[in-house]
Amino acid sequence: MKYTPRYIIGATLVCFQAMSAPAQDIPGKEQVVEIIHRVNEYWQSLHKPQEWAFWDVAAYHTGNMAAYEATGNAAYRDYSEAWASHNQWKGAKSDDRSTWKYHYGESDEHVLFGDWQICFQTYIDLFHLDPDSAKIRRAMEVMEYQMSTPNEDYWWWADGLYMVMPVMTKLYHVTGNTQYLEKLHEYFSYAKALMYDDDEHLFYRDAKYVYPKHKSVNGKKDFWARGDGWVFAGLAKVLQDLPADYQHRAEFETVYRDMAGAIMRSQQAEGYWTRSILDPEHAPGPETSGTAFFTYGLLWGVNNGYLDPATYTVPAIKGWQYLATFALQPDGRVGYVQPIGERAIPGQTVDANSTANFGVGAFLLAATELLDYVERRQDSVFAFSYFKGNGEDGLHLAYSYDGFKWAALNNDQSFLKPELSDDKLMRDPCIIRGGDGRFHMVWTVSWTDRGIGYASSDDLIHWSEQQYIPVMAHEPDARNCWAPEITYDPDRGIYMIYWATTIRGRFPETQIEADNGYNHRMYYVTTSDFKTFSETKLFYDPGFNVIDATIARDGNRWVMFLKDETREPAQKNLKVAYAESMEGPYSKASEPITGDYWAEGPTAGRVGGEWVVYFDKYIMHRYGAIASRDLVNWREVSEKLAMPDGIRHGTVFKISREELARLEGIQR
């Protein structure tokens, strides 16, 4: 089954987000990032990663990994790696299955207790970043043994749904074993029957707190905020990973949405939630862990199309305002976290000095989801450069507000006619915005030339004189220069231009007659001014015929998407490689990330909190796209894509709304 969540990321969503909360209440990206770093660096400065793998520490690491994914700060990943290694990539460590237990316990025989299994979430996330089966061997051993038993009552307390539900969906994506999804529903059904209140749409912490057996001090139903926070955040994580065609998906969506409504209605005017959700007087005053989980879950629903932005953005932002202006202390400490427990306790002190690892983790989840929200609202739109036909009429441009529905500019007429080479073509136009603020473009000038084209512009309308760069003129046996791309390293102020070339006899292959004897490798030059260039060097030799590479930065690493052009046996798919610096060396190419079709001309960008790779399904004569949050697990989103007719290989980049307005005013 393929995972395709029911996202609604369209112009309507963007519009609603913009109008749903006062602009002055929504922080800027830099402010959110600063808070993430302040909170996380404060916590890590006081706590070494060599701590146990029990739930409280492991819950922090789920937030730490979200912070790493959002900011790319390698220190955060290293911190979780050190913690995982310290714990031997295990939870409870007993190897004697006859002693394994799943009631509450902090000793090593409680292997089946969910509080010892939440650590597997982080281990799996780290596995995706650097696949090594040792990282998930224990997780698979434990969960597969658990699933082999007839027991269904493993999740007997609300917290357990956050601890283990995401482990099940994550392992499903690693293994493809559908038993993880079958048991997910079985265990969830037990927990729901035991603890869920169908009238209030909230979960009791466990069976002993079910009304009327247990009541608040005022005789009301007593729903513990952190307990329901665990469940609500866990549902968001699970919905993110459930396959679109999973037979029980609608049930999970319904519980999530019903909980969202109950949570929104019980929010206090100051933005927080009290420890007893429906009886604020039972244990009055703010509490951070429950509030952070609720804020995260609401923002996730708004960001991903599960919740109406016009209804839920304001309570989500109010929750964040409490977290950022009241719970967060100037030094980075997260206060007002109820200590470890299982209920709202009347008279318990919860103040600015009350902090805990799991509360910091919840705060980081909320902060990173807010960062996703803010990035979606920024005053910019997507642009796409492309060519049509054989490239005779030059540069075409399209735009999109959501990254999926694209409209051609200038009535789909050319913005720039090609002037270089005998063929005068402008194929594969790659445009980036450089460190100087200008747009820089390179393109293929001919099927057989040994150079490429270059031009620059301040506004995409008025272009510099077209410049021919003879990058392979020194190689008399070079047959071509195809699909050049530019990538900019802002830390060094250097541009790298790279392209595919076949040099006769340089990389012979068995099927020399296939594909007209082409056997490309990637070559490159660097420049800081597009006037002088380094000498041409071999850039990437994956051991097969490779074309159409494009590179993007992901935090502290560089990611290259490329086409495996092997003809026998046919590949014609897209793969990924990684490097620590722009110029490499790059890793071995991954397994294919595209499906059972031929694809070429990838270009990649961030759409919300995900990477989206666009590409030409050239045999089918249409464009396709795939998406991923971690650059490892990919899903098809081609069905969401609407592109101008006849669009061919180009690049995605960002422009301002003012720049778009000027482009829309052009009619040629």
UniProtKB/TrEMBL annotation:
A molecular-function term among this protein's GO annotations: hydrolase activity
InterPro entries attached to this UniProt entry: 6-hairpin_glycosidase_sf (IPR008928), 6hp_glycosidase-like_sf (IPR012341), BT_3657-like_N (IPR055133), Glyco_hydro_88 (IPR010905), Glyco_hydro_beta-prop_sf (IPR023296), PolySaccharide_Degr_Enz (IPR052043)
Domain Arabinosidase BT-3657-like N-terminal span(s) in chain numbering: 380-469
Pfam families recorded: BT_3657-like_N, Glyco_hydro_88
Superkingdom assignment: Bacteria
Record key words, sorted: Hydrolase, Signal
Signal peptide: 1-23
One biological process term in Gene Ontology: carbohydrate metabolic process
Keyword Signal among UniProt keywords: yes
Ranges that cross the membrane: none
SUPFAM superfamilies hit by this protein: Arabinanase/levansucrase/invertase, Six-hairpin glycosidases
Protein name, per record: Rhamnogalacturonyl hydrolase YesR
Organism field: Parapedobacter luteus
Organism ancestry: Bacteria, Pseudomonadati, Bacteroidota, Sphingobacteriia, Sphingobacteriales
